[in-house]
Amino acid sequence: MRVAIIGVKGYPIVYGGFDTFVRELAERLVKRGVDVTIYCHSALFKEKPRRVNGIDLVYMPAIESKSLSQITHSFFSFIHASAGKSDLLLVVNSANGPFGILPKVAGKPTVINVDGLEWERPKWKGFGAKYFYWASKMATRFYDQLVNDAEAMREVYLELFNRDSEVIAYGSTPEYSQRPEMIEQWGLKKDDYYVIVGRLIPDNNSDLIIEGFLKSHSQRKLVIVGDVTYKDEYASRIKKMSETEERLVFTGFVKDRQTLAELFLNSYCYFHGHEYGGTNPTILQALGSGCAILALGTVFNKEVLQDGRYGILFEKQQQAVTELVNRVEAEPETVTDLKSKAREGLGQRYDWEHITDRYIEVFENLLKSKGKT
């Protein structure tokens, strides 16, 4: 079986959830005997090896601008892949929905992982929101098989677009502390801080969590891990708060994987304010790190945490955050209990090997239905 993958920045670099997903899946597919080709954004690679870890790499150009870079890279990749030798295309990101017409015309079977509610995210306004909604709708028309990573997202696509999808969750791997001293660079000690991990965008509600935390009685610190790569009023306001509040520690981006892992592993509690999307990779990393998770009560977070079995859910209110912090400060036994069972929350569903099995099953069924086997 030959599978071409489109929609990420490339391999083996990792910038976000889709890049991690493709890396984890592609490497495992190769071990199962699948020929994998990944389309890479040429401008991001100084060196351009044609094959890495058994994965074939194709470097495609783009019109390099903030608004056109990713979409033009995808367009050129689709043209190349539609005429290529792969048996099927695996596409990520619903923004690529309209491009599904190209492999469809070429008679190439397609699978798309559509991800989350991009059109509802505050960062997309006006045309951006309308485009994502339209693109997601086009994905339901042009692609042979849709994949969602959460049951709640499957229901959204059924309701809005009347199209069913396979549900295959995102994955994670249990982690354990190896170098706890790595957090000392910020003056941190084990269990002496809460942590937020994510981009500083309104979608993740860092401001709500920070403001609620500062009104609590906690003497612990709140560590904010993340940033944005552009000048932004929202992010600047949060960073400015960390300059004047002793309990706030702003780390910026933490690119070293082990350092980031230690920030999860040694926290008292992890705050998850992500509001949109399906299965969020960060909450799964928190589970795999044995964190006591305090999460915004969205349908997606409820699904991952099994309605509160593996974390505490809170409402989108500053007072709710304040009360929750005061509660876990007064109930350390609750935190200990959450930590002791967090990793079991991953189960089979979020295991990368199981996820690989499911994708292979989807690929084989699609090829069989198309008479390609």
UniProtKB/TrEMBL annotation:
It comes from the Bacteria. InterPro entries: DUF1972, Glyco_trans_1. One of its GO terms (molecular function) is glycosyltransferase activity. Keywords: Transferase. Residues 3-172 form the DUF1972 domain. Residues 179-344 form the Glycosyl transferase family domain. SUPFAM superfamilies: UDP-Glycosyltransferase/glycogen phosphorylase (SSF53756). This is Glycosyl transferase. It comes from Roseivirga misakiensis.
